[in-house]
Amino acid sequence: MNSDSVKKGAARAPHRSLFRALGLTDREINQPFIGVVNSFNELVPGHMHLRQISEAVKAGVRENGGTPLEFSTIAVCDGIAMGHVGMHFSLASRELIADSVEIMARAHGLDALVFIPSCDKVVPGMLMAAMRLNLPAIVVSGGPMLPGRFRGEEVNLISVFEGVGKVLSGQESEEWLKGLESKACPTCGSCAGMFTANSMNCLTEVLGMALPGNGTIPAVYSERLILAKETGYQVVDLWRQNIRPRDIVTKESILNGVAADMALGCSTNTILHLPAVAFEGEIEFDLNLVNRVSEETPQICKLSPALHGHYLVDLNEAGGISAVLKTLLDAGLIDGSVKTVSGGPLAERIQDAVVRDTKVIRSLTEPYSAKGGLSVLFGDLAPEGAVIKVGALAQRDFVFEGRAKVFDGEDLASEAISAGRIVAGDVVIIRYEGPKGGPGMREMLGPTATLAGMGLDETVALLTDGRFSGGSRGLSIGHIAPEAALGGEIAFIEDGDLVRIDLKKRTIDWILPEEEKEKRRQQFDQAKGLEKAFEVAGRTGYLGRYAQFVQSANKGAAFRATKED
Ligand SMILES: CC(C)(O)[C@@H](O)C(=O)O
Ligand SMILES: [Mg+2]
Question: How much is the ipTM here?
Answer without folding.
Answer: 0.98
